[in-house]
Write a structure and sequence with these properties.
The chain is of the alpha/beta class. It folds into three domains: 108 residues, Helix Hairpins (Orthogonal Bundle); 133 residues, NAD(P)-binding Rossmann-like Domain (Rossmann fold); 87 residues, Alpha-Beta Plaits (2-Layer Sandwich), CATH 3.30.70.1450. The chain is built from twelve helices and ten strands.
């Protein structure tokens, strides 16, 4: 019934929402019959509007305080008919509410609902249960209950052991459909991670490039975009993309590194895992600008003892390129970033102040 009063576009969208339409129709029927009965009581019983509405509410809810029952024959018959009708309608309404809630759960499970996540992570192309569980564990080690939204059109729903995790949402839709990106709420996310559709096929990098380009239309410059690259030779496709590549073969590279230098792969793995060892953290210098890399390394060790937080400089990032083990004479410029290894979350502002204080103390000597 309610569809008759809606615009054609909205009518087409709601036509498949049977529980919602049923619940809305029941509410509309109850509203109309209640006002019809109110009019009947108002004029047949010769009472005021307030008293008529009060009697309608008593009858509909079966409370029946009895302080002003109908006195005329028409009023009493109308009360009987309306009372029976409302009992049936309320029973049907409760059933419609349960059906509607069940439909919402199914729509959310099958990825038809708009994401409720904000300031979280959007994952394109579900990477598999094991990898996704590891990703969630590592992210939430540093950010407790970090929201994640999975976007994929190759699966009908997330695996049960993944879907039951808190703050996990699923959006099922084509990566070529604009609606998919709106439902994933890319405008409000912190970072986007694009996995390849097929990790064994280098051609998947082409699909990844398409998704990265489309994602760039919906996010601002503060949103991190990361893509997993199957074949390093395809890196040229992303030269104009504002996205950070991660090689799919990183595991293989770690094995090769271990073959060349024992225990090195273990160290790299501990650096990459948030839940083990030190965590690489990127910070923006403010008070040590003008220092050299050698100055930073020199004062980092005594500062950690005073600050009570283990910190080791790893690299300096200049013009978007990370330089590992830079020369001690390398200056720290205004637009640079520093990559540090620290246990847990580091309060960089306080640590930087400690660095400056330690150097000032040396200068006074």
């Amino acid at each position: 019934m309610i569809l008759l009063f809606l615009p054609s576009r909205l009518r087409r969208r709601l036509r498949q929402r049977v529980p919602l339409i049923r619940m809305t129709d029941l509410a509309l029927v109850i509203f109309i019959t209640s006002w019809v009965f109110t009019f009947v009581l108002r004029y047949v019983e010769d009472i005021g509007w307030t008293e008529a509405i009060w009697q309608v509410w008593q009858t509909a809810t079966t409370v029946g305080f009895g302080n002003r029952p109908a006195e005329t024959v028409v009023g009493r018959y109308a009360t009987m008919v309306f009372g029976m009708f409302e009992i049936i309608m309320f029973g049907a309404g409760i059933g419609a509410v349960f059906d509607f809630r069940h439909e919402l759960r199914e729509r959310r499970r099958s990825g038809q609902m708009r994401s409720r996540q904000r300031k979280g992570y959007v994952i394109f192309n579900f990477p598999g249960e094991t990898d996704f569980a590891s990703l969630v564990r590592e992210l939430r080690y540093m950010e407790e209950d970090a929201p994640l939204c999975v976007v994929d059109d190759r699966i009908e729903h997330l695996p049960s052991n993944v879907a039951t995790l808190p703050n996990i949402h699923f959006v099922r839709g084509s990566t070529l459909a604009q609606e998919t990106y709106h439902r994933a709420r890319l405008q409000e996310c912190k970072a986007v991670i694009v996995f390849p559709t097929d990790r064994a096929a280098a051609e998947s990098d082409g699909t990844t490039k398409t998704v990265v380009d489309l994602v760039g239309r919906f996010v601002d410059e503060t949103t991190r975009v990361i893509h997993v690259l199957v074949d390093a030779a395809n890196g040229w496709m992303f030269d104009d993309a504002r996205s950070t590549p991660i090689l799919e073969s990183l595991e293989v590279l770690a094995i090769v590194q271990e073959c060349q230098d024992v225990h090195s792969a273990e160290v790299v793995q501990q650096l990459l895992l948030n839940t083990e060892g030190a965590n690489p953290q990127s910070v923006t210098p403010k008070r040590v600008i003008g220092w050299t890399w050698g100055d930073l390394v020199r004062y980092a060790i005594p500062s950690t003892e005073r600050f009570g937080h283990e910190v080791n400089p790893l690299a300096i990032v200049k013009n978007g390129a990370a330089k590992l083990c830079p020369a001690n004479s390398t200056p720290i410029d205004e637009d640079d970033s520093l990559l540090l290894a620290a246990l847990g979350r580091l309060n960089w502002d306080a640590f930087e102040a400690c660095l400056v204080e330690m150097r000032a103390s040396d200068d006074r000597r």
